[in-house]
Amino acid sequence: MRHFSFVCGICVLSLFSVTASAQAGLFSEDAAPPAGAPQSFADLSDKLLPAVVNISSTTKVTQPVGEMPEIPEFPEGSPFNEFFKDFMEKNGGGGGQALPTTSLGSGFVIDAEKGLVVTNNHVIKDADEIRVVFNNDVTLDAKLVGKDEKTDLAVLKVDPKKHKLSAVAFGESDKMRVGDWILAIGNPFGLGGTVTAGIISARQRDIHSGPYDDFLQTDASINRGNSGGPMFNLKGEVIGINAAIYSPSGGSVGIGFAIPSDLAKPVIDQIVKFGRTKRGWIGVKIQTVTDEIAESMGLSGTGGALVASVTPEGPAQKAKIEQGDVIVEFNGRKLDTMRNLPRIVAETPVGEKVPVKVIRGGKEMTLSVLVAELEKAEDEGLIEKADASDDERTPPKSSELDGTGLFVSDLSDVLRQTYEIPDDVQGVVVTKVGAGSDAMMKGMSPGDVILEINQHQVSTVTEAKEQIRQVGDSKDAKESVLLLVDHQGQGDARFVALKLKNDKKKK
Question: Fewer CB within 10 Å, N- or C-terminus of the chain?
Fold first, then answer.
């Protein structure tokens, strides 16, 4: 079974140390390192560590407490009156009290003069306070410049006058090849600046975490708390931002994922410049060209993106792009697969008129489309924000199962195709897992199909929400719920018990 999870961790302690990787044995005194590999990563690590930071974010959550007894009556002026008053105030007086929750992650400085730091969005999401800790234990408060949930990136700012900063530069991730050496630096389990080494294991991985998935995969040891940390090439350039791991247990099993720098850099540049993203948008929903579709349409291959629908009054409709067209080239860039189009369109400057090559009725033609702004289209209601990928892989609507951190949708043909779920599997599909939730800690991920809740079959979101509601409303209200989960319809079902975050307490 596959379990993808973000690698943001919980604070344990704070010390900076450099640990050897599993590859250290390759560099023994009795054996020469492989061709092209350095004798040691020590010099490179010394150079890079000052630019890598620990990030601590705190969110204040109001948690109800049980009913408190009334203050006993004492004679006026009795010292016990003040004692019980202080006790009640410290314990919320029977009402709600703000309890801080702390999350740890990693980041790195990209501009020493301006004090700009990059990390993952899920590291600082909903944070009330953000602190950046450098490798010499200097701690600075940070402000959020901007964030992007679609690529899970965020930019922070610290005061550069309060500490001398060291920055690192971005490299070109598209030039990285499978087998190239990399270094990963981060803050696993709150331990502090930790260096691990490995290679690029694969490229262009799609783990269904967002509309622009294009991850680099590595075997370098990455654990919870490494989120937002940099992945370096041997020149000391950032070619990836560590974001997720594949793990049945929650720990590193040698499969980590990083956001490629060539995907991240345009997003970061826009956040720095505008405080938000300004993505290109043309207003089409697309789907994969399968072998069957290619054969029925008389296409020579499965490259390109099939236009499933066109947004009324959108740029594509104005450019005469039609339903059933197969987009094979956009702005001079050929589309080997459907999933390349959303990223290419998003990276195209807003307001630019670009050529689009399509196949219609077996004939190739070139049209011209004026690229609009995705975020503006969302704000104006032309498209739903959940549909922001210009891609039917993202479900138009999903509902949260209260207290579980899970967002689910009814199974549809689109979702079955997206997650490769067989037709005979019935249930509700997980489309999003809340960062830091118990569901994430238990290894649940988008594409999981919930078959049962508390041993009752569920086939719709309505049924699933009703089962969750009954758990909270029952006389013997439980603090957890039992799910039977089939990971992406692979036939390997397992039970998962989730702790419920519920304001309702036993009385």
Answer: C
* Summary count for the chain: helices (H), strands (E): 11, 28
Give the Cα separation of 226 and 174 in Å (integer). Answer: 22
Structure tokens at 492: 């390997």
How many residues are listed for the chain in this entry?
507
Domain 280-387 is classified in which CATH homologous superfamily? Answer: PDZ domain (2.30.42.10)
At the second CATH level, the architecture of 399-499 is Roll (2.30)
Which residues lie closer than 8 Å to 128 by C-beta, 6 or more apart? 58, 59, 60
Matching CATH topology for 280-387 and 399-499? yes
Catalytic site residues? 122, 152, 227
The rounded Cα 100 to chain-centroid distance in angstroms is: 23
* Residue 63 CB burial class (10 angstroms; 0-12, 13-18, ≥19): middle
On whether the 1-29+40-277 domain is CATH 3.10.50.40, my answer is no
| Tens place of pLDDT per residue across the chain (507 aa) | 445 555 554 333 333 333 434 344 433 444 455 556 677 899 999 999 999 999 988 876 555 455 455 545 545 555 555 555 665 555 555 445 555 556 688 999 999 999 999 999 989 988 889 999 998 899 999 999 999 988 999 999 999 999 999 999 999 999 999 999 999 998 887 777 889 999 999 998 877 777 787 899 999 888 888 889 999 999 999 999 998 777 665 666 778 899 999 999 999 999 999 999 999 999 998 888 888 788 777 888 888 999 988 998 899 999 999 988 999 999 999 998 888 899 899 999 999 999 999 999 889 999 999 999 998 888 887 776 544 334 333 444 678 898 888 999 988 877 887 788 888 888 999 988 887 788 888 888 888 999 999 888 999 998 999 888 887 665 555 677 888 888 766 767 787 888 887 543 333
**Domain segments of the chain: what residues?**
1-29+40-277, 280-387, 399-499
Which of 450, 441, 312 is CA-nearest to residue 9?
A: 441
* pTM (2 d.p.): 0.63
